[in-house]
Fold this protein.
Amino acid sequence: MGPGPRDSMRRAIPFRCMHRDCPRTTMKARTKRMILALVAVGGVAVGTTLILRAFKNNLVFYYTPTQVAEGKAPRHSVYRIGGLVEKGTIKRDGLKTSFTVTDLKTAMRVHYTGILPDLFRAGQGIVVEGRAGPTGIFMAKQVLAKHSATYMPPEVAASLKKHAEFAKQAQLAQSR
Amino acid sequence: MNFFHKYSSPKHFYPLAGRLIPWFGAITAVLMMVGLYWGLVIAPPDYQQGDSYRIMFVHVPSAWMSLFVYVVMAVGAAISFIWNIKLADVLAASSAPLGASFTLIALVTGSLWGKPMWGTWWVWDARLTSELILFFLYVGYMALRASIDDPRRAGQSSAILAMVGIVNIPIIHFSVDWWHTLHQPASVMKLGAPTIYITMLIPLIIMAIAFQMFYFTVLLVRMRNEILEREKHTGWVADIVDGRG
Amino acid sequence: MNWSRFFAMGGFAVYVWSAYGFAAVVLTLNVVIPLRQRKTILKRISRFLRFDQGDQS
C-alpha cells in the first residue's frame, strides 16, 4: 500500500502533541493519568483494608471482660482490659488498690499498685494493662482512665444526676 | 464558570489573593480573640475534667484542620496530576506545611490533655497511631517535593503520594468506632446532637472557624510565594517587582 | 475577673498553658516564615531584574 492521504495526515501530527488544539492526544494522556490515579488510590485502599482486617486482633487496644472470659485475650502475655469500675468494689491500702472492672455482663477483679489517674472513680470507664494472675485476678501494671465524649458544667451534671435517665446514658456512653 | 477559568491562571489569581489576605487575616484575628476569651474565661469547667478540658479549644480545631487540609491537598494534587492545572499543584504544595503544623498541634496538645486525664502521654491506640501516620504523610510529601528540583516533576511524583494517602483519612475519623481505643468517640462530628453543653460548644465552633480562616489566610500568602517563584521569568512578575520599587 | 484563678486553671495550669503556648508558637511560625520567604523571593527577583537590565544596556 502506498502512502495515502490519511498516512500523510498522521505524519503531519507531532508524535507527542501536548497542545490544546490536539484534543485527541491530550484526552488520551489525561484519561491515562485518571485511570492511573484511580488504580493507585483504589489499590492502596483495598490493600489497607485487607491488612487492617488481617491485623484486626492486634489492633484491639483492649479486651472487654466478656472477651477475656471467652478466651479471646492472650493468656500468657501482657494485654489490656477495658470497662467500668464497678461501684462499691474499690478497696485501697496505701498505694495498693483493688477493684472490679465490668462491661455490665462479666466482671473481673483487678489488683494495682501505684498512682491512679485523676479521673479514676467508681463508675468511670478505664483501661488497665497487665496480665492475669494464677488465681484469675488481673495484676495491673498501668491504669488509664477513659473519659466520655460528654462535656457539661458541674451544675448541669448535678441537676441531670437527679434523673435516672442520666445515669443510664452516662454508663452507656462510658462503656463504649 | 468563567470566573474559575480566569482565576485559575496564576497571573489573575495573584492579585485576587493579595486583595483577600488582609480581610481573611482580620477575620481570623477577631475570631481567635473572641474564641479564646470565650473558651478560657466564659465557658464553665467540665463536671468530670475540670479546667483541663479547655485544651479541647485548640486540640479539636487543629485535629479537624489536619484532616480538612489533607483532603484539600489530595484534591489539589489529583487535579494537577490529571488535568495539569498549575494552580492546583501550587494549592497542594502550599497546603502541606500548614497541614503538618495542624497535625503536630493536635498530637502535642492531645498528649498534654492525655497525661492528666488518661494518665499517659501516649498510647498506641488506633486513633493516635493513625493521626501520627498523617503527620508522616505530610512530612513525606514535603520531603519528596524538596528532593526533586523540577517543579513539574516534583508535582507529578508527590501527587501520587498525596492521593494514595487519602485512604488514611476515613481510618482516622472512624478509628474510634471501628476499634476499641483509649480516645473517646466523637462529640460533634457524628450523627445526632453534639454531646457538648451549649456554653462549651459555642467557643469550640468559633475556634474551629478561626482555625479555618487562619488556614485560608496563610494558604493565600504561601500560594503567592509559590507563584512568584515559579513565574519569576514572566513579564507580569517583573512588572509587580518593578512597581514595588 | 480573678486572675490567679484564671492562671491556675483548676490545678491543670501546666498542661493547659503548655498546650496553648505550643499552639501559639506553631501558628506564629506559620505566619512569620511565609512572610520572610516572600521578602527573600522579591529581593532575589528584583536583583535578577536589575542584572538583566544592566546586561542589555
Remarks:
- Confidence is low (pLDDT under 50) at residues 1-14 of chain A.
- Chain A has two domains: 5-54, 65-175.
- The longest strand of chain A covers residues 125-132.
